[in-house]
Records
---
Amino acid sequence: MSAEATNPATPGPVSSPAARWRARIDLRRLGRAALLGPAGRDRLPDAISHVVDAHRAHHPSADLDPLRRAYVLAESSHRGQMRKSGEPYITHPLAVTLILAELGAETTTLTASLLHDTVEDTDVTLDQVGEQFGAEVRYLVDGVTKLEKVDYGAAAEPETFRKMLVAAGSDVRVMSIKLADRLHNMRTLGVMRPEKQARIAKVTRDVLIPLAERLGVQALKTELEDLVFAILHPEEYERTRELIVDNASRADDPLADIADEVRGVLRDADIPAEVVIRPRHFVSVHRVARKRGELRGADFGRLLVLVNEDADCYGVLGELHTCMTPVVSEFKDFIAVPKFNLYQSLHTAVARQDGQVAEVLIRTHQMHKVAEAGVIALGNPYAPAPDDPADGERADPTRPGWLSRLLDWQEAAPDTDTFWSTLREDLAQDREITVFRPDGGTLGLPEGATCVDAAYAQYGEDAHACIGARVNGRLATLSTVLQDGDTVQLLMGQDPASEPSREWLEHAHTPAARIAIQRWLAAHPAHTDTEEDAEPSSAPRPTPEGAVARPLVDVIVDQPDATVRLAGCCTPVPPDEVTGFAVRGGVVTVHRVECAAVARMKSGGRAEVGVRWGDTTECRVTLLAESFVRPHLLADLTEAMALEGAEIVSATIEPPTQQRVRHTYTVQLPDAALLPALMRAMRNVPGVYDVNRTQPHPA
C-alpha cells in the first residue's frame, strides 16, 4: 500500500507549532470512529468532524456533501485494511485530508484527498470516481495514483519525479495532496527499519521539501524538515531540542517584552494589528545556532505583525523604525517584489539596549495565509471567473514561474538521466533572486545565475541570438553573475541563424539554459567557436608591413632635416596635442602629449622637440574594436567603416574568448576630422561595445 504506518515519532515534548499541529490529530479517535462505519445517509460521519470543522473555518459556505460521500466510499473500500501500527487504513486518508483542510484547501481537493488511495489499493476504479464526483476529482485522483505506482527506489527516482513534475504542472493540487500524504507518512515512520527510514527521509529532503518550498507551502515544508532532521541527524536534533527546552524554562522572555513594546507603539499610532510570537522550528534554530554561535532568548522566535491592508504594512514598518532601534541591514521588502513562490511580507529587525535583536515579519492576514499554505491557499486555480467564457481550457494564472520553467525544460530534456541531474541541481538552489527587465518585467532566477541564464529565461531558444548584456546600465559579459535586484538588458542580434557558444555551458546554471544549449550543440556537432563568420569573403586581409595607400599627414618639426614618424603607441592625428622626441638616425617620433611613453622619456632626461600639424589633413590611425561574437559582425563593421570614408590598410581579428572578440584596424582617412564620426559609426554596429585608438598590430 502507498501509505505505511508506525507509531508517531514526535520531536520531543517541546510545544512547537508542528507539535501542536500534530497533536490535533488523534489517530485512535479517528480509528474508533472509522470502525463504527459511516453515519446515516444525510448525517456527516463523526470521523470527518475534524476535517469539517477545519474546512468550515476557511470556507464557511462550502458544500459538505461531496466530503460525506467521499468518506463513505473511502471507508467502505478500505474496510478491513490496516496500517502497520494497527489503526484502520482509513485513518491515513483522513489525516492527509485534515492536513489540507487546516491549510485552507477547497472542497474538490479535500474530496480527492479522501479518495487518493482508493484506485491504487481497492477495487474502486477511476471511472467510478468520475461518475460519482466529477471530472476534476477524477483528474486529481488519477494524478496522485500515477505518482504512487512508481517505486521510490534509487533507480526509479528520476522517472518518479519526472511524472510528479508533469502532474504538478498539469494541476498543482496533485502535488499538494502528495506533499500532505508524505507528511503523514513521515509522522508515522518510526516502526520501519532504520535503513528504510533513512532512504525515505533522504528523498524527502532532496526533492519533496524543495518542491514544498517552491509551492510556498511553508507549513508542510517546516514540519517535513524537522522530521527529516530527527531521522538523519539524531544527535544534532537532540542538542537542538535541549537548547529549545532550556530557553523555554527561563523566567525572562525578551521576545515577549519586545512584543509588548511593539503593541504599544502600534496602539499609539492607531494601527490595528495583531502581534504574535512565532517560535522557530527545530531546523531553523539549528541554522541560527550554526550561524551565530551562542543563542540569546530573542533568537528562538520571531515576531509576526498581522494587519488588514497592504498600506498598513508600511505604516507598521515606519512606526517601528521611528520609535525603536531598527537593524537596517535586515530589511527586505517581499511585498513590492514577492518571492518566486508567491510569498509576500516585510522583514525587518529591532534591537533592545541590551543587544537583544528581534526579527519582525509584517504582513496582511491574506499574505499570512498564502505564506503558510502557498498554492493550497489559492483554492481552485482553474475555476473560471464569473465573466470568463467556459471554454474548457486549463489555464493556471497562479502557477509559479519556476514551475512553468521546469515544465518547459523537462519536455526538452533528451533523457531521464539529464532530467534527473538538472532537477536535483535546480532544487538544490535554496534561494532565488529577482532581476528586472528594462520594460518593467521581472525574471526569477536561482542564486548564482548569469546573463546566459537570464537570456534563456526571457527568450527561450531565441536566446541563441544573444550577443551581450547591460547590467545596471553597464556593458557586461554573458558570464556575469547576477545579484538580486539587478536590472538586465539583453542585447539581441538580428540574424535568425545565430548560434550559441560551447563556452556558454560553463556559465549556464539553469536547466532551461543548459538543455537549450546542449540540444543546439548536439544538432550541430561540427560547430566550433572559430567557425563564426570571422573572415567572410569581403573581409580585409593584412597588408604587408609599411604598405601605404595614401600620403600621411604633414608634421612640421622644429629640427631641420629631421625625418618624422608618427608613434605607433598612441597614433596621433590632428587635432591631437602632440610633442616629439629625437631617436636614432635623425628621426623624430611624434606622440600625443598624454601618451605614457612621453612621461617615460621625460623622466629619462630625453629632450622634447617642438612639433605641430601642417596643412595636410589626411591621416592614418589604428583602432581597436571590442565586440561580442555574432555571425556577420565583421562584414557589418567593415561596411560601416567604408561608409564613413575610411580605407582599411590592415586588419587583425583575434580568436574569440568568452564570446568576445577584438578587431584591430589600421585605417586611412581623407580628413582627420572624420575620425570621431568613424568611431561613433563603429560603436553603433550591433555587438560592438567599445572602440578606441591603439597601436597597430604587426601585419
---
Amino acid sequence: MKYRSFYRNRTAAFIVIVLLGALVYSCANMSRPGGGPRDTEPPRYLRSKPLPDAINVTGNRIEIDFDEIIQVENPSEKIIVSPPQIEAPKIQAQGKRLRIELLDTLRPNTTYTIDFGDAIVDNNEKNALTGFAFSFSTGESRDSLQISGLLLNAEDLEPITGMLVGVYSNLDDTAFNTLPMERIASSDALGHFTIRNLKPGRYRVVALKDMNRDYHFDNPSEDIAFLDTIVEPYAVRKQYVDSIWVDSLTLDTVITYDYNRFYPDNILLTAFNEGFKSRYMESYERKERNRLDVVFSAPHDSLPLLKPLNFEPRQGWYLLEGNLTNDTLSYWLADSAVYNMDTLRIAMDYYRTDSLNELSLYNDTLQYIYRPPKTQKKKSRKAKTDTLPEVEPTVFMQMTVGIAPKQDVNKPFTIEFATPVAALNSSAFHLSEKKDTLWIPLPDSTYTLVQDTANIRHYYFSHKWKPETTYRFSIDSMAVSDIYGLHTDKYSKDFAVKSMQEYSNLYFAITGVTDSAVVQLLNNSDKVVVEAPVKDGGAEFTYLKPGTYYARLFIDRNGNGKYDTGNYAAKLQPEEVYYYPSSVELKAYWNVEQAWNIYEKAIDLQKPYAIKKNKPKDQKPPEEEEDEEDEYYNNMYDGNYYNNGTTMPNNFTGTQYRSF
C-alpha cells in the first residue's frame, strides 16, 4: 500500500509537471493574436489641469489626460490658440497625456481657447478626436458666446481647409490691415469654422491665409475673405430630445436635454486673392541670333524702354512681338549689322515692384550673348574635276497651317509664320470647294484672313464652312515675305468638314439672374471648355462635342465678360458664383434644354460631387449622404448657405448672410 501510494503520487506529480510545461511552452511561443473588433473610437477626455472652463488661471501649462495613448499630428498647422500667439506654443504627447505650454505672457481677464481640430489621434488606428476644444480664463468670468459658418473659395465654391477665420471688435476698416485678429479659428476639412469664447458685442468677420504669421492682412498676395455686415453673437436656450430604445421597435425612454444654441451659425465667407503679383524680370535670353526675349513675372500697362550701349542702331532696328499683358516680349532684330554681333549690351528701363509693394522705375543693363549651335565638320573629299559644284537649296520662310483632319463647322483654322511678316498678298490665298469630282474656286469675299492682335505672326483663316463638305486650301509661292527677305513656298491641302450629326446643342433657361451673367461649361476636371453670356434669360451653346458636361455661372457685375476677383480696400466682393447641381449628358445630334434656378439649392450643396476637389476621406458620396442631409443640417444649422437668394431659411437675418 505504501509503495502503491508513492508511485501513484509520483505519477500525478509527473502529469502536473507535463501539463505545466506544455502551458509554459505555449505561452513562450509567439503566435498571431486571436483578434477582436477593430478600434473605431477616438480618444476620450478623462481629466485636465486646469479643469475645462476654469477661471482665475495663472499658469501657462495645461495637461489633459485621455483614456488611451495618443499622438498629435501637425500641431503647428492644426491646433489654433486664441487669442493668437506670437510665439508658437509647445505641444507634446506623452503616452495618454497631452502637455501644452503657452510661451506668450498670459493677458489678464482674458478667455483662452485651444482648438485642436483633428490633431489628436489614438496611437494604433489613428482615430481622430474631432471638434475638441479647451478653454480657460485668467479673470473672474469666462466669455462663452460663439459664431460659426462656412468658408468657400469664391471662384469654384471649393471648401477651404486650414484657413484662419477671425473677428475684430475694432470696426475700423483698417483694423484688418494693421492689427492682429482678436480671436481666431481654423476651417476644417469641409470648410466649417467655429470661433469660440466671444464676449457680447459687435464684430467684423474676416478670413486670412496667413503667410507670414502676423495675423493680419499686410501681404497683398495672401488669400482673404470678409463679411460685409457686422455680426452680433447671441445664445438661445433650447431643448434636445433623445430616445433610448430597447430594440429597433420598442421605445424605452425619452430624455430631454437643455443646451445653449449659439447664433449666427451659418455665416458664409467666400475667399479670394486680389491677384497681386510682384513684378520683376524673370529671364532674358537670345536663343536665336535675330531675336531677343525678355519675360516679366506680372502684367503691366507699359513697355520697357531700350537703349543700345555697344552699337549704333538705325531707325526701326527691331520689331516688337508682345502679348496683351506685356509680360512676354520678343524683339526681332531687323538690322543685320546688329544681329550679326555675338554680344549685344542694352540698357532697359522698366517698372518693377519695390520693397513697399509699389511699382518704381528701374534701370537694368542686359547682356545678350548668342552662342551658335555646334555643327559637325564634314570630312574633306578630294574634288573631282568632272562634277558640277553643289547648289545650295532655297531657304523658304517657314509657316505652320493648323488644319485639323476634320475641320470644325464653327471655327477658323490658323496660320503661324516662324518670323515676322513684312508683306502679305492676300490674293495669293485660295479656297476651293469640291463638288462631285470638280474643284470650284470660291470668291475672295467668302473668306477672311485676320492677324491676331496678341501675336503678330499668327493669322486666322475664316469661312462659313458647309458640313460634310471637302475643301482645298492653297497658297501661291512668294505670297508672304518676312523682314529678312525670305518668302514662302507654295502650299496646298485638302480637308473635310464635320457633319452636324457629330455635334450637340445645349440651352440653359436660367431664373434668378437680375444682372448680366456668364455661364461656363466645364469638363470633369472643373476646367472651362467654353462660355457664353446670359441673354434674355438663357445661355446657348452650339457645336458641342458629345459627352458629359458641368456648368458654372458667375454674375458679371461690371459687364466685362470675365470673372473678377474682390478687393478689400475698395470693399469689393468677388463676383458671385453658382453651379448647376448635376451633370449634363449630351449625345450626338441632340438638342438639350435645361431649366436652372440658381437659388434652388444652397451654395454649399450646389457643386456636383464628381468635380469636387476637396473630398475628405470620411466624406460620403452623395448617394450615401442624401438620406442624412436634412437631419445633418437640421441638427447643425437652421438653414444652409446662400449668396443673395430668394429661397432663404425662415430665420434669415441680415447678419447671418452675405449681402451684395
---
Amino acid sequence: MLDKFRLLSQTWVAKVLLALITIPFALFGVEYYFRQAGGGADTVAKVDGVSITQSEFNDNLRDQLERMREGLGTRVEPSLLDTPQLRYETLQGLINRHLLAGYADKQHLSVSDAFLAHEIAQFDAFQENGKFSQARYEALLRERGLTPAVFESRVRDDLKIQLEQDALTGSQWVPGVTIDAFLKLNDQSRELALVEIPVERYLAQVHVDDAQIKQYYDAHQDQFRVPERIKVQYLVLSADQLAQGETVSPADIAKVYEDPSNQARWKGTETRRVRHILIAAPAAAGEAKRAAAKAQAEKILAEAQAHPDRFAALAKQYSQDPGSAAQGGDLGYFGRGMMTQPFENAAFSMKTGEIRGPVETEFGYHIIELTDIKAGKGKTLAEATPQIAEELRRQRAAKQFSDAAETFSNLVYEQSGDLKAAAEKLKLAVRTSDWIVRGAPLQDPVLGNAKLQNALFAQESVKDGRNTPAIEVAPNTLVSAHVVSHEPSVVRPLADVRAAILQTLQRDEAAKLAKADGEKQLAALQSGKAETLPWSKVRQFTRQQALSEGLPQGVVTAAFEANTSHLPAYAGALLPTGTYALLRISQVTEGNAADAAKRKQAEVGLTRAYGDAVLTGFLATLRQDSTVRLINKSVLEPRRDR
C-alpha cells in the first residue's frame, strides 16, 4: 500500500511536492481549510456545515491552471485557460474531498506518527544523496510559509483518505469471462475495402444564387469579423530588475552570517535513525487493555535487550505499526519536531545501539533502538555567501520596489496622457508592442496578462487615450500601458467573402447529393445486388490501427459497428470533406484472449475502471446523505480581471 501511495500523482501530497520544486504559485492551505468550520464572506460552499473557502478554491484553481499550462508546453497565460467547466470541476473535486475526509473521520481512521514520519522521509523533495534531509525539509516548508505541524497534518489527512479509497477500489474483481469478452472485442480486426464517392463529382449539378449567399452572410456574421486590435507602449517596474542593480558588500554578508538569530541556518540540524516495535494501545482502549499492552511490551523489551541482533526479527513478529513492521521497525532518519513528543524525547536522549522502552505515547507502547546519529551539515561563510548575497539583494530590492511602486502608480495615473513622466522619474525603458488582437492568447508573460488586456481594451484606454492603471502581472511586477494605435472590430464586406461563401454552399449541396447517391448504392449492396465498384485493396485493421493510420473516425465507427452476421457486410459514412465512403467488411477475426500479458493488462485496466465506478457510486451515496450548499455562485464564472 505504501508503494501505491507514493506513485499516486493525483493526491494533494503529490501536487504539493511538485509545487515545492517547480510551480511558481504553489498550492497552500488545502487540508488546513477543510477542518475549518463556519462561513462568512470568504465561504464558497459548505459540506455538512464545513466551509470550502475562497482561498482554498483559488489555490486549487491556480494549481489546475498551472498544470494545464505546463501540459501545453507553452507560456500561455493561465487566465486564458480559465473556463466555467474547469471551475465547476475544481469545486466538485473539493466537495468530494470534504465528503471523503468527513467519512474517514466518522470511521475513526487514523495514521500513526511513526507511519507518517516514515512516509514523509521517503519523499524525493526532501532527499539529499538518497536520504531524508531534515534541513532540506524545514527549508522547503519555510520557503512556502508552512510549519512542519501544518504540513504533517495535511499529509496525515491524505494518507487517511488514500486508505479509505484503497478499501473501496482495491477489492474489485473482474471475472475471467469479462476479460475474455473485452480482449476479443478490443483486439478484434476486420478486413476492409472502401470506395469513395467524391463530393467534387456533384459540384457541377449545384446552383447557388445571390440570395442564398446573402442569407448565409447575414446568418454567419461572426465568421467574417476581423477582431479588434491595438498597439501599445508600456513600462515594466519589477523587483527583479531592481535586484540586478543592487550591490552587496562582504561586510554586509558577514554581518548576516554572524547574526546569532541565523546560526541555526548554518549549523545544520541533527537527525537520528531508529527502529521501533509498537504494541498498539490507543487512549480509548481502556486501562485493562493498556496494562496488557504494556506488559507485552516489557516482555519484548527484555528479549530485545538480551538479543539486540534480533531486534528487526522481533519487530517483524510483534510490531503493530503497519508502516514499519515489514522493514524491521526502521523509521529512517528524522529530526526534532517530526515525532510525537515522548517518542522524540526518548530518541534524542539515547546513545547509538541503546534499546529503551516501553515508551508510552497516545498510540501505545514503543520499544526503541537508536541505530545512528547524523550531525547536521553546516555551511561555512564562503558556502553561505551566494545565498546571503541573493537574499540581501532581494530584501533591498523589495524595499525599493515598495517605495517605487507608489510613485509609479501615481505618475501613470496623474500624467495619464503618456508614460513619459514615469519613465523619466524611475529610469524605465518605454517598450513598444506589435499588434495585440483582442481575445487572442499571447505567450508574452507581460502583455499576455488577462487583467492588463482587459484594461487595454477598455474605453478609457482605447477611446479616451489614458494610461492603464499600474497592474500587477506577477508578484512584485507592475505594468502600465498606453494605446498608440487602434483598429476596431469590423465585419468584412460581402464582396470580400463572397467567393468563400459560394464555395462553402456549393460543397454543402454537393455533399447532400453524394450522400443520397451513396446511400442508394449501399442499400443495393445490402440487399444482395451486384454492384461493380472500384474497391480499394483489402486491408486488415483493429480499431486502434485504423485510427492511427489516418482513417476518418466516421469510417472506423461505421466499419466496427456494422452487423457482420453475414459476410461480406456493407456500411457507409459521410466524411467531413463531403465525400461519401462505402465500406465492405469481408472477414472478422476475434482478438486473442489467451495472451497472458494482454490478459494481465486488461485485468488491471478493467479492475481500475470498476474501482473508479465503485468510488463514484460511493461518493454519490455520500452526497445523498450529506448537505452540500453552494454559497457563492460567482466562483463558477471566470473573471478576466484576476
